[in-house]
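Contributing: when you submit paired examples, paste them exactly as shown. First protein:
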Amino acid sequence: MTGRRPARRNNRPGGRWFGMWSRVRKAGVTVAHAWRTETKTDEDKRPHNLFEAAATYVAAGAEDDLDRADEAAGWVSPEALSFGVNELACRAVIALARERGESPRTVARELLGLPAA
């Protein structure tokens, strides 16, 4: 060798690269925690799913509880909330149609106050 020292390796598998990627990963975790919109409390450790958010959002809207609707809207992304509300509406219309013995189309139009097609 012509005066070059071999690269120093630390005692971890992967040498210095492991240490670098470990620091990058830790920084990413720190950033991810900073971006969280919801704070976790002891009584509420699991995250809300989109169906819980949609059910709470729709129920709060029906009860004119804007604070609760805003809270539920913050649990998931707007796209996920939209999907959940759509899924809830579909299931509700199907359930009402079965209960009434009518088509889902008839029930949906009736719920919205539209004339029969």
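Second protein:
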Amino acid sequence: MNINWYPGHMKKTKDLLKENLKLVDLVIELIDARIPISSKNPDFDELFVNKKRVLVINKYDLANPNLNKAWENYYKNLGYYTVLYNSTDNKELKKVEAVIEEATADIVERYRNKGIQNKVIKTMIVGIPNVGKSTLINSIAKRKSAKTGNMPGVTKGKQWIRLPKNIDLLDTPGILWPKFISEENALNLAFTGAIKEEVLQIEEIAYSFVEKIVKVDENALTNRYGIELSDKAIENIDNIARKRGCILNKNEINYERVSRMILSDFQDGKLGRITLEKPDNNHDYLN
């Protein structure tokens, strides 16, 4: 399956990141807890190699609780200031603010030693489309500073936002990379809604998802749809369609409708708390 999406505005966004990088003290990167590898833009490692980075593992409330801590430890071991975050719970903000303070403590202290009090820390927030950047900004700023939506690419342009505790935050549009590392990587992004539907073959994406989900959590489809699980993805899709009334005239399956429903149910957490990727099995990240 050929999935690729790198429209012109993403090239402009990458240029914007490079242009403004010299202005910031810290980069805050959001990834999706359900796909902690696939949702991490590999271009960022090169772009921000000389910058401190806070890694916010967002949507952990939708991910497998047994793997959340493992992923947090995985990235901590790689040198990131790392925090698990649930953007739907305002109580979670204290965790994010605490890790930002930790990451910038030496910068603040350095300016204090120079006699500069209340130094404004410049930060930049980055991530793939639809990962939750605007929701995080709105929550921290305690106001509707950035437009939010459930479609990738809704936040556009450039905006500096003043946050509490002398922090200025530069919001940036979501950005993917020119060529996906693997088909699995591209599919994971499609499953979670990071790629616009207009460039996807939705029925093929749903087929691939059903193939994968039975390997990750064999009970997910049975618990949600009450079907008897088959070893063939198309039979599972057909059975779900019949259970949920996704039927056209002459009793034919409405594959577009059932495909959208299955993917939407996963994205909304209705199939349970599911993580599609695991950390390196050669290390014990659960400790």
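If you have annotations for the second protein, write them as plain sentences, like these:
The first helix runs from residue 8 to 21.
The radius of gyration is 20 Å.
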